[in-house]
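Lab notebook page, bench 4
Experiment: in silico fold of construct C2
Operator: M.H.
Input chain length: 108 residues
Purpose: comparison with the prior construct
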Amino acid sequence: MACELVGRGHAQLVRLEGGTDAWLQAGGLVVSSQKVRWSLERQVRLGAGMLVLIGVALGFLVDPGWFAVAAFIGAGLTFSGVTGFCGMAKILALMPWNRPVKREPGAP
């Protein structure tokens, strides 16, 4: 796996004997999160589902124009499925809760 990544432009990869634990014991820095996070895919499904539900509810209760929200999300999901590009995932990846946290050696 690492050899494949080196061939794809990741020339600074190294294989660590003993893994991450050995790296931390040697004083290396690891960027990780101590929070439990949802995957971006799960965040997108939740966000899209909520927007569709809100759009439909407002379409029935307030004004039929709100159905356009559900249609827009449906079109976005279709585009994402066809092209592999998900704009909502790109936006969610920039959110503060999805940023890595630096962990010092010896930290829990």
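Observations: The helical segments are 2-6, 19-25, 40-61, 67-83, 87-93. The beta strands are 30-32, 101-103.
Next step: discuss at group meeting.
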